[in-house]
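Thread: quick sanity check before group meeting

JM: Hey all, I'm pulling together slides for Thursday and realized we never actually wrote out the predicted structure for the chain we discussed last week. Dropping the sequence here so it's in one place. If anyone has concerns about the input, flag it before I start.
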Amino acid sequence: MNESRELESVDIPSDVLARIEDRVGHTEFDDANEYIIYVLEEVLHTVAQETDTATDADVDEQQVEERLKSLGYLNE
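JM (edit): ok, ran it. Output follows.
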């Protein structure tokens, strides 16, 4: 996973880093940095999908409400 990307630093509590380093041994990753980047990207992807889904549901609900009003099922 040696992609050429600009890197920044963050602080991680030592007990969390120890847990990550223990976990890395059970993965395909070479070191804790690669594992942390992967996990963060996966979490961000999941959150983005959930956010997109929630936004789509809000739009759909509004469209349904407008349609029901136009059909006379809801009072305006």
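AS: nice. The longest helix spans residues 32-70. The CA atoms of residues 41 and 47 lie 10 Å apart.
JM: adding both to the slides.
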